[in-house]
Amino acid sequence: MELKDLYRDVILDHNRVPRNFGRLDAADAHAEGHNPLCGDRLTLTLKLAGERIEDIRFEGHGCAISTASASLMTEAVKGKDRATIRGLFDRVHALLTEPGGGAAGAELGKLAALSGVREFPARVKCASLCWHTLNAALASSATPVTTELPDEAPSALGERLTEKR
Amino acid sequence: MAANARESLHATESPRATAARPLDAERVRRDFPILSRSVHGKPLVYLDSAASAQRPLAVVRAVEDYELNSHANVHRGVHLLSQEATAAYEGARERVRRFLNARSTREIVFVRGTTEAINLVAQAYARPQLGPGDEILITALEHHANIVPWQMVRDQTGCALVVAPINRRGELILDEFRARLGARTRLVAAAHVSNALGTVLPVAEIIAAAHARGVPVLLDGAQAVPHQRIDVRALECDFYAFSGHKLYGPTGIGVLYGREQLLAAMPPWQGGGDMILSVTFERSTYNEPPWRFEAGTPNMSGAVGLAAAVDYLEGLGIEAIGAHERALLEEATAALERIPGLTIIGTAAHKAAVISFTLAGIHPHDLGTVLDSEGVAVRTGHHCAMPVMEFFGVPATARASFACYNTHEDVRRLVEALEAARKVFG
């Protein structure tokens, strides 16, 4: 377990200078995420063009992992359609939770910088909060997302929000 | 024998003489085997005793001895083991009575911990007699365990929950507290020491003000008991709650002290075996306190471990522990204040050995991970005191808490780890 594997330069950079930070006026979809254990809060606003995310912003406060993960996610999903995003979600999920990262790293580009999180089980929720929130936004769920619900309703993408641990 | 001789010698010493004998923390550390393990390849620095203190060998061995030699159910059999188990369990109650200087063991109820103790008072004392128009007064420093049980009583009875505010140093504003203590106040529930900030509350003033109006007072002593001598008779509090595991004892055991007249007038809150004298399908006759409030088979090995922890604590001398921790607190406070960007949250004039802090540009959660990788265990988060965090406008803090086994070296390692964190995020 090396600290350098968790706090890679890409992560530190996106924490220091988050991309797509802020809020879109007249958004087509939005969702709020909350991790009550560490107090992380996140609001996503989306502009949709059919199946595609045309634009996306995030705001809120959280640790370096949750901020960088949200920043990286906004870059990764902008311009992508729902099916592609679903594939990304699955690969990020595997990267964060499965031994060996589900061999998903290669196709993830910059998102692969999150692979070190896997070795820090207490921090997996920090990295995955934004993705669950995105699911909720795409499902146009009005219910705030939390990492601590005992039995979450499946989102429209059919993902369960619980982490595999 | 030598240990017994030393023990009896201590008993005749005045508190002043005990305080003059400083704590040898290096020797104390040898009583806690866990402290010699390493974490991520570094020697462990354990600064999370306010969440749960480590156990000395004496506690582990007392529990082991009970489990290996004396376990059976209590208050039941005529066989030898049951008698031994009963003697051990009720002996632990007497040990706790002496520790708190309570008048009678009838005032010592064994519970799972502070949380259960407060819930017991909420459900068996407050709920049956409160209604609309009545008020429960708490402070803005409370742990969730001293908020939520009262909210439940409020929702069950229609009474109101009133909160006395704190100042920017994290101290209770006594005048504001007194102003909220009114003709409708039926109970005051306050922390003795704040878990999130370390503030020691002015409990003598709180109790005097409440009693002047005939209002009973419950003190949440979870964070106070390991650091200072508690004398419930001198305090004149009505209820006092604490947990074994913050006191170097086992988890799953705690104590509710309640004044005998109050406990005697309270109905049981859980029904079952051991809390009754007789049962028919028509009616049951309840046992006397404290057993009335201990339905079911209790945590005997926990009680034995708690008694051993009390022995251990008093063997070291609570005054000596307090003095040792105060020295560490002062040293750590001065060292942390020198770190650029570090802000100490909670700067009360009177504090227990707890430092809550934030470091500019580094989220407490990241700080916790970096410190952990350096072998330094601190708590990060809201410390089950979200209203306190909200008051100071922070989502979370890092919290270092000191105990009898911490040393100057631990403070040095904490500072070093914080510098490492600043480097990572620099």
Key attributes of the depicted protein:
heterodimer; A: 165 residues; alpha+beta; Sufe protein. Chain: A; 4-stranded mixed sheet; 5 helices; 35% helix; globular; B: 426 residues; alpha/beta; Aspartate Aminotransferase, domain 1; Aspartate Aminotransferase, domain 2; 2 domains; 7-stranded mixed sheet; 4-stranded antiparallel sheet; 16 helices; 42% helix; disordered N terminus
Describe the fold and architecture.
The complex is a heterodimer of chains A (165) and B (426). With 165 residues, chain A is α+β, with helices and mostly antiparallel strands. Chain A has a single domain, classed as Alpha-Beta Complex (Sufe protein. Chain: A), CATH 3.90.1010.10. Chain A has 5 helices and 4 strands; from the N terminus they run ααβββαααβ. Chain A has helices at residues 3-6, 9-16, 64-77, 82-97, 124-138, and strands at 29-35, 40-49, 52-61, 145-146. A 4-stranded mixed sheet of chain A has the order 3-2-1-4, covered by helices on one side. In chain A, strand 1 and strand 2 (40-49) form a beta hairpin. Chain B has 2 domains: 25-43 and 317-424, Aspartate Aminotransferase, domain 1 (Alpha-Beta Complex); 64-314, 3-Layer(aba) Sandwich (Aspartate Aminotransferase, domain 2), CATH 3.40.640. Chain B has 16 helices and 17 strands. The longest helix of chain B is centred in the first third of the chain and has 21 residues, at 80-100. Residues 1-19 of chain B have low confidence and may be disordered. The chains are: A alpha+beta (165), B alpha/beta (426). The A-B interface holds A 1, 3, 6-7, 12, 15, 37-41, 61-65, 67, 120, 122-123, 126 and B 40, 362-366, 369-370, 373, 380-382, 389, 395-396, 424-425.
In CATH terms, the superfamily of the largest domain in chain B is Type I PLP-dependent aspartate aminotransferase-like (Major domain)
Q: Structural class, from helix and strand content of chain A?
A: alpha+beta
Number of strands of chain A: 4
At the third CATH level, what is the topology name of chain A? Sufe protein. Chain: A
Residues in helix, % of chain B: 40-55%
Unreliable residue stretches of chain B: 1-19
Read across the widest sheet of chain A, the strand sequence of neighbours is 3-2-1-4
CATH class of chain A: Alpha Beta
* Oligomer category: heterodimer
Spatial order of strands in the largest sheet of chain B:
4-10-9-8-7-5-6
Write down the domain tally of chain B.
2
What is the distance, rounded to the nearest whole angstrom, between the alpha carbons of the first and last residues of chain A?
17 Å
Give the SSE string of chain A: HHEEEHHHE
Q: What is the average per-residue confidence, as pLDDT of chain A, rounded to a whole number?
A: 84
User: Fraction of residues of chain A in helices?
Assistant: 25-40%
